[in-house]
Amino acid sequence: MNKLLLITFFILSAAGINAQDIYETYRAEWLKKSYGYLPELHVSKRLPLQIVQIVTDPEAYQQVRAEKVAEPESWINTPISANKGQVVDFGEHLTGHVQFLIESNIPAHAPVQIKIKFAEVPAEMDADFNNYEGSLSKAWLQEEIVTLHTLPDTVILPNRYAFRYIQFEVLASAGDMDFFVSNIECRAVSSAGEDKMSSYDSTGDRFRQITKVSLNTLRECMQTVFEDGPKRDRRIWIGDLKLQALANYYSFQNNDLVKRGLYLYAATAAENGLVYGTLFEEPSPHPQKHFPIDYCLLYNTVLTDYYEATKDKEVLEDLWVVAKYQVLNVLPQISEAGIFNPAPGWWNFIDWNDQLDKQVAVHGTVIYALEKTWELATLLNRQNELPGLPGVIASMKKAANEKYFNNDKKLFASGALGQISTASQVWMILSGAVSPKDGRNLFGRLKSERNVVQPVSPYLYHYVAEAMITCGMYKEAKELIGGYWGGMVDKGADTFWEVYDPGNDFLSPYGSFMMNSYCHAWSCTPVYFLRKYRNELFAEGD
Ligand code: RAM
User: Fold this and answer.
1) What is the spatial distance between Cα 386 and Cα 384, in angstroms, rounded to a whole number?
2) Whether 434 contacts 461, CB under 8 Å
3) Which residue's CA is minimally distant from atom 9 of ligand 1?
4) pLDDT at residue 11 above 60?
5) I need a labelling partner for 379 at 20 to 30 A (CA). Which of 55, 303, 400, 513 fits?
6) Do residues 35 and 48 both lie within one domain?
7) In this structure, which residue's CA is closest to atom 6 in ligand 1?
């Protein structure tokens, strides 16, 4: 057994990792604390803004757009049969509960069955959900069928919906009956509250607009936890939590929600100490049992980010043990030569591009997280609990440069085929395996390299922007924010999307654009960059 493994083995045994449940004595208290930070949901009543029709337009995002056809007042006085194909538009993305009044033209003598369909974007409204053939459950698509026997009736729909558009369709009724829908309202919910840093904004219209969409995205995802998307998956994921927390420090500053997330992850972690990638609040907090290893380790960095933003050490003291066990579980997967070989059954996320070879990016993520954990240990004066860590970090950086650097291309190359990707360079930069100056060169060479595997999610683009900033490339970072997130704004986004490939509007990780989440947490970080680095990004004006 090599020296590093031997040390880890002794630490693990001394720390009791082989015991049945290493967090047994902490869990109840962590759970209690998570409930102490349960936020209040602010409710606001929203009404339809206009009536639209979805029209084909080859130039528009996903080749359709919403075109105004009427005011809500005239629409509610027209029977549904005459409003066929028309859609109620609330003018902005909402997350909340919906109710409406339905009346008939004559006293009802038969039941009526109506379908109520919700959509975040026009193409989703235009699509026939019956044609859905994606990989995730069709039940995520937001549609209700309601049968009513007595009219008039106020219908309160059973779920929370995430939408901008609603359509009503009569599926069955008596031939002589027609229906009027009115008093449609949404009780929109969010725990975000006030944006406390609006005075930090740049004055230029483009970046103001990007900031606004960014804030809308974050606000909609801030519920009783930081959800990944209010339409789908409606749960907390570590990768999303990290980015939401960053954006939150520069906007709503609802820091209790960050703490709630951190304690929930700790309370529901596996018995060996690893946090799971995602968890649900209801009926009682429980994880979905898988370990995306990059996410597990990024948990530690949520703690360091939290401290940087709040200087609150109490949470760190409480949860240090969790940070430590993320590392202790990963150390045995790192060879003496500093190569990370993930255990079978672990996966890693990095991005949704299925062409991406993740070997180098994951290696970089591990170093990045270990560095942050060492910062944490130093802050808490607990270095003696992870004594070998600086050595491991150094050997991993050395290995990265020796094993993964392609000397001909002068770029990091991943996997057996030596794939060149943006993800690999970015995570090498963020890990500190290369200097900012060398990082700038990597970015420079990427430009002239052919067949570079590019990110497809705003999640990975966040780290691209972060890496540019790490290298002092403020101009490029600003261009990226303006071009990539701004590209979504140009295509009509009022909240940022889960995936965005400027060249493919229909790209979906789930085999259908209908299933994509069009208000997605990990896309919300422009507000973080634009405010945190305002002086550097806007040194030359807006
Ligand atoms: C998706 C989620 C989430 C992401 C994971 C990896 O299902 O929507 O945002 O973190 O995948």
Assistant:
1) 5
2) no
3) 228
4) no
5) 400
6) no
7) 349
Query: Do 398 and 309 share a structural domain?
Result: yes
Specify whether 13 is located in the same domain as 64.
no
**Which of 218, 238, 240, 348 to probe ligand 1 with, by most ligand atoms within 8 A of CB?**
240
Which residue, judged by its Cα, is nearest atom 3 of ligand 1? 228
Ligand 1 mean position to 181 CA, how many Å?
36
Domain that holds residue 164: 42-190
Model pLDDT, residue 19: 57
**Ligand 1 centroid vs 461 CA: distance in angstroms?**
15
- Indicate whether 314 and 410 sit together in one domain: yes
Number of domains in the chain: 2
C-alpha closest to that of 370 among 336, 317, 327: 327
Tell me, in angstroms, the distance from the centre of ligand 1 to residue 237's CA.
7
Output DSSP code: residue 485. I
Q: Give residue 484 CA to ligand 1 midpoint distance, Å.
A: 20
Find the 228 Cα to ligand 1 centroid distance in Å: 7
- Name the one residue in this structure whose structure tokens are 């497809």: 456
Residue 1 has pLDDT above 50, yes or no: no
Same domain assignment for residues 182 and 224: no
Distance from the alpha carbon of residue 47 to the mean position of ligand 1, in angstroms: 31
Decide: 439 in ligand 1 pocket, CB within 6 A: no
Co-location of 121 and 220 in the same domain = no
Q: Say how far apart CA 405 and CA 514 lie, in whole Å.
A: 40
CA of 240, closest atom in ligand 1? 10
Tell me how far the alpha carbon of residue 118 lies from the centroid of ligand 1, in angstroms: 21
Tally DSSP H helices, then E strands, for the chain: 18, 14
Closest Cα to atom 5 of ligand 1:
237
Q: What's the pLDDT band for 8 if we cut at 50, 70, 90?
A: low
Q: Is the pLDDT of residue 13 over 70?
A: no
Check if 165 has its Cβ closer than 6 Å to any atom of ligand 1: no
Check whether residue 304 and residue 422 sit in a common domain. Answer: yes
- pLDDT digit string, tens, across residues 57-110: 999 999 999 999 999 999 999 999 888 899 999 999 999 999 999 999 999 999
Mean model confidence pLDDT for the chain:
95
* CATH number for the domain harbouring residue 103: 2.60.120.260
Residue 204 pLDDT grade (very low, low, confident, very high; cuts 50, 70, 90):
confident
Q: Tell me, using a 6 A CB cutoff, whether residue 351 lines ligand 1.
A: no
Burial of 154 (0-12, 13-18, 19+ CB in 10 A): exposed
Last residue of a domain, one of 142, 168, 190: 190
Residue 98 and residue 26 in one domain: no
DSSP, residue by residue, 124-189: HHHS-GGG---SS-GGGS-EEEEEESSSSEEEE-SS-EEEEEEEEEEEE--TT--EEEEEEEEEEE
Find out whether the beta carbon of 220 lies less than 6 Å from any atom of ligand 1.
no
Q: What is the pLDDT of residue 344?
A: 82
